[in-house]
Amino acid sequence: QVQLVESGGGLVQPGGSLRLSCAASGSILSINFAAWYRQAPGKQRELVAHITSTSTIYYRDSVKGRFTISRDNAKNTVYLQMNSLKPEDTAFYYCNAHVQEVGRGVQYSYWGQGTQVTVSS
Question: How far apart are CA 107 and CA 99, in angstroms?
Answer without folding.
Answer: 5
